[in-house]
Amino acid sequence: MLRLLVVPEIEACPDSGAVSPDGGVIVMPPDAEPPPPPPPPPADGSPKPDREGQDDARVVADAGPVEDARAPADDAAPDEEMFVEGGLLVSRITPDHAAAGANTAVLIDGRGFPLDGDVEVYIGPERALEVVVEGERTLSAIVPATLEAGVYDVEVVRGDGASDELPGAFTVTGEAPAALELSGILPNSIVEDTLPTLTLLGRGFTEDVEFFVGPVMLQGVDLVSPARATAVLSTPLPPGVYPVSARVGDTRADLAAGLTVLAKSSSPRADGCGCRTAGGDALEPKALAPFLLVLSVGVLRRRRRSR
After folding, report:
1. 7, 184, 186, 242: which one has the fewest Cβ atoms less than 10 Å from its Cβ?
2. How far apart are CA 211 and CA 153, in angstroms?
3. CA 5 to mean position of chain CA atoms
């Protein structure tokens, strides 16, 4: 029997060597030159020079250098926007002045105030009295009467060592203090038809003090100190902004826009699924029934037509 063995021709690869029929060694064509070896590093150990024609700027698609994300923008917002979560920020003190020789109740606004109350407030060199954490964003305190006339920094120091300061934020004047002052109310906004207990801050409160929100006199006054009292709003008020006043005999102190009463529709409400809606009533499940019925009928008709 005669057997014929056919050997395929060897095809040359234009860019590489020829391949032997048995798939063995790749042979480089005679005119091919191996790539030059990389240059050795400098003998003195200095870093390799940059490739010729490149600069230090990073370029993307010829669109120019990439800006460093860490660089602050030109229109960077004030401290409130730069606040770091878990940090401490002091933004305002109200009122920002007081007469020398009398204790003055103040409210300090900011962020990061500890709810456990482990915090101290300093007005210049003096530590504030009766510091109360009203919320994560609000402190109340008493500026001591021992401060002389001048301008003072306001500093808040947490128990963990974090601190923040408002330079020159509080002024003590040489004027004689008023016999009665009203400097703040907490909370300063409520929802209509609620009857909350309010905290009033000021100076010169006595057992005879009376507090009013608009035309309504507050009930159950509890005098905590001459600068702090609590009382209950016993009559619901319609939405609006109301003045708050303190009265002792013929002496009166006022906050022109002390308390804001919000309409129910403008307050956050539960929507029945654990979410919150910005306003209006939540959509009741009963209102969805007609819509679901129409939707289910449409689906059934479509299935029948497809069959």
Report:
1. 7
2. 32
3. 84
Output 130 or 286, whichever has higher pLDDT: 130
Q: Residue 177 and residue 144: Cα distance in Å, rounded?
A: 13
Q: Are 154 and 131 in contact (CB under 8 A)?
A: no
d(CA 81, CA 75): 11
Burial class (CB in 10 A: 0-12, 13-18, 19+), 115: exposed
Q: Name the band, by pLDDT with cuts 50, 70 and 90, for residue 84.
A: low
- Measured torsion, CA atoms of residues 186, 190, 193, 197, in degrees rounded to the nearest 10: -10
Residue 268's pLDDT band, with cuts at 50, 70 and 90, is low
Beta strands in 180-250 (DSSP E): 181-186, 189-191, 197-203, 210-213, 216-217, 219-225, 228-232, 240-248
**pLDDT (average), residues 35-50:** 55
User: By percentage, how much of the chain surpasses pLDDT 90?
Assistant: 47
The overall longest dimension of the chain from CA atoms, in Å, is 137
Q: For residues 76 and 138, what is the distance between their CA atoms, to the nearest angstrom?
A: 25
With beta carbons less than 8 A apart as the criterion, state whether 198 and 221 touch. no
Average pLDDT over the chain reads 75
Cα(139)–Cα(18) distance, rounded to whole angstroms?
A: 85
Domains, the chain, with CATH or none: 89-173 (2.60.40.10), 181-264 (2.60.40.10)
